[in-house]
Amino acid sequence: MAKKKITGQTKLATTSSPADSSEELKLVSRKSQLNPTSFRLTPEDSDRLKSITVAVNELSPYKKISETMVIKALLYNGLKIKPENLLKAIREVIL
Question: What pTM was estimated for this model as a whole?
Fold first, then answer.
C-alpha cells in the first residue's frame, strides 16, 4: 500500500503555543478548605439540639435543616450576644 504525501498546511502546523497567545485565561478560585471540627455533646445537649432542629424544620417550607446548619446559625447568633450574657449561659449549662 502506497503512502500518500501530505502537501499543504496541517492543523498542527497552525497551532500556537500558550506563550504566544494573547488570550487571557480566567483563573478559577478554589473554595476555602473546610476544617472538620468534632466535639462531644452530653445526652441533654444532644436532645436540646434535636428539639431545636425539629422546631426549625417545622417552620422551614423548602428543605430539611440539618443539625450542622442549626449549629452554624447558633454560632452566628453567638457573635451578636454580649460576652457577659454568653458567660451567664455557660454557667447555667455547666452548673
Answer: 0.58
Q: Exposure string (b/e) for 15-43, b if CB count within 10 Å is 16 or more?
A: eeeeeeeeeeeeeeeeeeeeeeeeeeeee
Residue 57 included in any domain: yes
Q: How far apart are alpha carbons 79 and 61 in whole angstroms?
A: 27
Indicate the residue type of 65: I
Mean pLDDT value of segment 3-17: 68
- Residue 78 CB partners (closer than 8 Å, separation 6+): 86
Residues 56, 50: Cα–Cα separation, whole Å: 10
Q: How many domains does the chain have?
A: 1
